[in-house]
């Protein structure tokens, strides 16, 4: 995965950001393949959390979508946790990315860790994945400037 840009133009699609247009899926493609192709053509700023989760679990557009997903997790986790319920789909998509993704983006991984910390006790549906993610992270040290 290329290094993660901190800001993507929310008006651009993944196709625009990557500079690569995928060919249209075949007529007999699965619904998932068709959905991923269609989502790549939408502005990233218009993608809902469930759509981000769908793309991220397919490892599509990670350099641009992970920062967006982490921002959503960071911004929504405290309020949702306070309400006693948290939608696990986006969290699951983020914490189940390969360790190499986080090795290349340690600051982003630290933001995920902080967001997870605000949840308290994650739901049983994602608890093992969160624990695995947290245990795979090396000790984070911010870059000195």
The radius of gyration is: 16 Å
Distance between the termini: 25 Å
Main sheet attributes: strand count, strand direction, barrel closure? none
Counting DSSP H or I runs of 4 or more residues, the number of helices is 8
How much helix is in the residues? 55-70%
Q: What's the SSE pattern?
A: HHHHHHHH
Mean pLDDT: 86
- Shape type: globular
Structural features, described:
There is one protein chain. The protein has 145 residues and is mainly α. 57% of the residues lie in helices and 0% in strands. The radius of gyration is 16 Å and the shape is globular. The model has no long low-confidence stretch (mean pLDDT 86).
Brief write-up:
With 145 residues, the protein is mainly alpha-helical. It contains eight helices and no strands.
Task: Give the SSE map.
Blueprint: H1 14-18, H2 31-40, H3 49-57, H4 62-82, H5 88-95, H6 99-103, H7 106-119, H8 127-136
Helix pairs in contact: 3-4, 3-5, 4-7
Keywords:
mainly alpha; 57% helix; 145 residues
């Amino acid at each position: 995965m290329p290094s993660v840009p901190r800001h993507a133009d929310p008006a651009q699609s993944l196709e625009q950001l990557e500079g690569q247009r995928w060919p249209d899926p075949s007529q007999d493609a699965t619904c998932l393949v068709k959905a991923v192709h269609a989502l790549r053509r939408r502005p990233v700023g218009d993608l809902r959390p469930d759509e981000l989760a769908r793309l991220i679990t397919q490892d599509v557009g990670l350099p641009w979508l992970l920062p967006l997903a982490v921002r959503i997790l960071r911004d929504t986790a405290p309020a949702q946790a306070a309400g006693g319920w948290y939608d696990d789909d986006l969290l699951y998509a983020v914490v189940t990315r390969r360790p190499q993704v986080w090795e290349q983006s340690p600051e982003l991984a630290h933001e995920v860790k902080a967001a997870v910390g605000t949840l308290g006790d994650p739901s049983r549906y994602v608890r093992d994945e969160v624990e695995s993610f947290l245990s795979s992270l090396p000790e984070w040290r911010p870059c000195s400037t």
